[in-house]
Write a structure and sequence with these properties.
The protein has one domain. The mean pLDDT is 80. The protein has helices at 5-22, 25-39, 41-56, 58-67, 72-86, 95-112, 114-117, 123-127, 151-176, 185-205, 210-254, 265-274. Helix content is 74%, strand content 0%.
């Protein structure tokens, strides 16, 4: 596809440039993955915040479900309004994946036909002729696991695919473990996508070039650390906000007017009796 060629050329350039520093075909893909994830960080940040807010409003969602259990149309309207107020996009987790799809297809082409896209003056171009020099943990990253003849030789490829599935599952549970079960169709759809996507990536990784599987794994690991950092920052900001509100309440209570003894009739009566 002609529309993918600019992406493929850009990826090939970054791949060859990274290879000059790493001198490893596999680690050059890792560096490429990190660069791409840094570029799409704003989308990941929005996705993580949206998912965390989804957790925080679970009590409110359950309350709405009880109030409108007999009126699904009104329930959906109230939930949509709640999402709008809280700035939540239930399907926000899909957006970074959609943005990366052209990159996946372009990287697929580069790995399948590297000599067509890698610059001819790059050191990687000359190394591609020798398959032994571009192996990554005994794996040929230009071919999928399905093309390996013997099961013994497939073991590193299968381990790689297994790690892709496990890291993807952990990445999803990292943000949704507190959300629990919900009767909201949108929330259920988001949870279903979160369960299916890791298995889907594992399935397609069997027939994709192993270099692309390295891309998936590196992206999962990068986003796990990224999400942990974002959640920690968000929680610290919430704690600071709560402490600030509590301090303001204490200050208001301390500065509230206190009754003077002269205005207390009981104390005035005691003083008169002493006299």
């Amino acid at each position: 596809m002609a529309i993918l060629e600019p992406f493929a050329l850009a990826i090939a350039f970054l791949l060859s440039y990274s290879y000059d520093f790493t001198n490893s075909y596999g680690f050059s893909i890792v560096v490429l993955t990190v660069i791409i994830n840094i570029i799409i960080f704003p989308l990941t940040l929005r996705q993580t915040r949206s998912t965390k807010r989804m957790q925080d409003i679970q009590p409110e969602l359950k309350k709405l479900q009880k109030q409108h259990k007999d009126n699904k149309e009104q329930l959906n309207k109230e939930i949509a309004e709640l999402y709008k107020t809280k700035g939540i996009n239930p399907l926000g987790c899909v957006l970074p994946l959609i943005i990366q799809m052209p990159v996946w297809f372009a990287l697929f082409r580069v790995l399948r036909e590297p000599l067509e896209f890698i610059p001819r003056d790059a050191s990687l171009f000359t190394k591609l002729g020798d398959q032994a020099s571009i192996l990554f943990f005994t794996m040929n990253l230009q071919i999928p696991a399905s093309e390996i003849e013997t099961w013994i030789d497939r073991i590193p490829y299968l381990v790689l695919i297994l790690f892709v599935i496990l890291t993807a599952l952990y990445q999803q549970s990292q943000l949704t473990k507190k959300s629990g079960n919900s009767n909201n169709p949108q929330a259920q759809q988001m949870q279903m996508i979160g369960k299916i996507m890791p298995l889907f990536f594992g399935f397609i990784s069997w027939t994709l070039p192993s270099g692309l599987v390295v891309y998936f794994l590196t992206g999962n690991i990068f986003r796990i650390g990224q999400q942990a950092l974002i959640v920690k920052i968000e929680e610290n900001q919430e704690n600071k906000s709560e402490k600030k509100d509590q301090k303001e309440e204490n200050d208001n209570s301390e500065t509230s007017p206190i009754k003077d003894d002269k205005d207390d009739p009981r104390k005035n009566r005691k003083k008169r009796r002493r006299k």
